[in-house]
Amino acid sequence: xxxxxxxxxxxxxxxxxxxxxxxxxxxxxxxxxxxxxxxxxxxxxxxxxxxxxxxxxxxxxxxxxxxxxxxxxxxxxxxxxxxxxxxxxxxxxxxxxxxxxxxxxxxxxxxxxxxxxxxxxxxxxxxxxxxxxxxxxxxxxxxxxxxxxxxxx
Amino acid sequence: xxxxxxxxxxxxxxxxxxxxxxxxxxxxxxxxxxxxxxxxxxxxxxxxxxxxxxxxxxxxxxxxxxxxxxxxxxxxxxxxxxxxxxxxxxxxxxxxxxxxxxxxxxxxxxxxxxxxxxxxxxxxxxxxxxxxxxxxxxxxxxxxxx
Lengths: 153, 146
Prior knowledge:
The structure holds two protein chains of two kinds.
Chain A: H1 9-41, H2 49-68, H3 81-100, H4 108-150
Helix pairs in contact in A: 1-2, 1-4, 2-3, 3-4
Chain B: H1 24-33, E1 40-44, E2 47-51, E3 58-62, E4 65-69, E5 74-77, H2 81-87, E6 93-97, E7 100-103, E8 107-112, E9 118-122, E10 127-130, H3 132-143
Antiparallel strand pairs in B: 1-2, 1-5, 3-4, 3-7, 4-5, 6-7, 8-9, 9-10
């Protein structure tokens, strides 16, 4: 039997959920960094627990949208219509929550800066995944050559 | 089917097969006797053909029929993909989705895709996607961990 070890539906689901957890934490820490820098610039050395709670929940919900509705655009091979729409919608949602949640005291300039920062984070994540795939391509092709050499044509 | 086996002390050994229809079982027996039991039997538009598993690029199941693609020929073979996989001792054949089996020995390049899928480019230039459910197993196969 050659496909005994194939991924079960449960394992596939779990892999997806772990991916969402990882993404939510990644974005939360990236946004928390911006938030902390803003607070320090304002001369405040305390972070609001309420704001941080809002941030992590927002990240979770938006990461679910990102994965299940927008084809996981930050990991996409190519940015097409739905992926770009996802990028715009998710950024808009973060901005809306940050504005109405008063993360940056409804300061328009800082909020716009946050928007640019979110786009930069997304760009970096897309770049990281692409680089990761390129390295994976190389490893896969090396393994393929070895396999073919062992199982002569 | 009646089987007559007779031991002889001298003269040339021979096997006589008398049949009404050439069934797959008889086909296999004939292949074994011809010394080419590794050969597969299938049908194309031009009629019956014999070919080796090495010639196959990939197999596809369409409406419960299994087709083997060799690059220049599409051959219909008997049975299912599971039967084929069970009969093949060669690990070069890999089930890459519910309806496809690829010959890893005839993959020219691999490309990692998002969501842990893999794009396999066959020697013919065709692209076959190894789905997420089978990709981990495929990686293990390449590393010899299966």
